[in-house]
Amino acid sequence: MSTDEFNYDLPEELIAQTPLKDRTSSRLLVMDRKTGELEHKHFTDLLDYLEPTDVLVLNNTKVIPARLIGLKEETNATIELLLLKDLGNDTWECLSRPFKRLHVGTKIAFGNHLLIAEVTEKKEEGIVVVQFSYQGIFLEILDQLGEMPLPPYIHEKLAEKNRYQTVYAKNVGSAAAPTAGLHFTKELLEEIKKKGIQIVEVTLHVGLGTFRPVEVSDVAKHKMHSEYYEMTEEVAEILNKAKKNGQRIIAVGTTSTRTLEAIMQKYGTFKACHGNTDIFIYPGFVFKAIDGLITNFHLPKSTLIMLVSAFSKKEYILKAYEEAVKKQYRFFSFGDAMFLK
């Protein structure tokens, strides 16, 4: 299967640069994943498509200000780090730029030496492992020095940090937002609950695995980077009961989907667990966990458009995207949403 099969034309002006004032005012393209039939709605219309027996699964990860810009101690050259994965003991896996300027032992100073990173390992594809040293509390220093790691296609400055954060974000550790969740407000979640729908949370810390571009021509040869996930016993019980009773499990976002499917693939059931997953979902994948998916519009040739194509049909997805372009939907992180039912 060729990566080019997942390409589509997108005018640059349709890439949303800023979030809408009201989170729920985005549009919603509803698609029957089995027939490809489309309906043009608004996000608040989601309520009409949810049944009281449904279980909605959110990813409660919280984005950290993961982008750090500092100076290499030996030369004062500017170095950028994007924190990807907490390895424990103040050691992090990071994406670095420029990668060539770093070697084991290189020290980078941030915020006038408030924070020092020493490279302890060089991997491939721009990845380094660094050991941080500092006085105080790491997350407080990161709040002070770090920037929100907005995707490269967003050129506008983000006025409020919390707009690249879901209203239910709680477990700190992501390098990018689970963007399908950005459309929800606390009020809308309350309305969903009032309808009798159960809302549960899992965690997947979004890292390089989710947003790294596919650079190989053969889809099957793409290697996903692993990301940390966890599920509690209470959530596992609710989801297993829902499966047993034939209730729909609806994932909010591709990250929730990957968490649920990774657990189901590994254990054949939902269970309390945590670990790292490099699950790669593309057409041919057999879904065992989810019955519906709320998601944003994804980049051409990305692993995410491959995932939604696997959940429906590639032809239906590309036709839906063509229709969304025609109707001038807003695309990507701050853009509009789709509901695949």
Keywords:
single chain; 341 residues; alpha/beta; QueA-like; Thrombin, subunit H; 2 domains; 9-stranded mixed β-sheet; 6-stranded antiparallel beta barrel; 8 helices; globular
Describe this structure in words.
The protein is an alpha/beta fold. It folds into two domains: 3-63 and 160-340, QueA-like (3-Layer(aba) Sandwich); 68-145, QueA-like (Thrombin, subunit H, Beta Barrel), CATH 2.40.10. 21% of the residues lie in helices and 28% in strands. It is built from eight helices and 17 strands. The chain has helices at residues 46-49, 138-145, 186-194, 208-211, 233-244, 254-267, 303-311, 314-326, and strands at 27-31, 38-42, 55-59, 61-63, 67-72, 78-88, 91-97, 107-110, 115-122, 127-134, 171-174, 198-204, 227-231, 249-252, 273-277, 292-296, 337-340. The chain has a nine-stranded mixed beta sheet with strand order 2-1-17-16-14-3-12-13-15. A six-stranded antiparallel beta barrel has the order 5-6-7-10-9-8. A two-stranded parallel sheet has the order 4-11. Helix 7 crosses helix 8 (314-326). It is globular, with a radius of gyration of 20 Å. The mean pLDDT is 95.
Provide a compact summary of the structure:
The chain is α/β, with parallel strands linked by helices and 341 residues long. The chain is 21% helix and 28% strand.
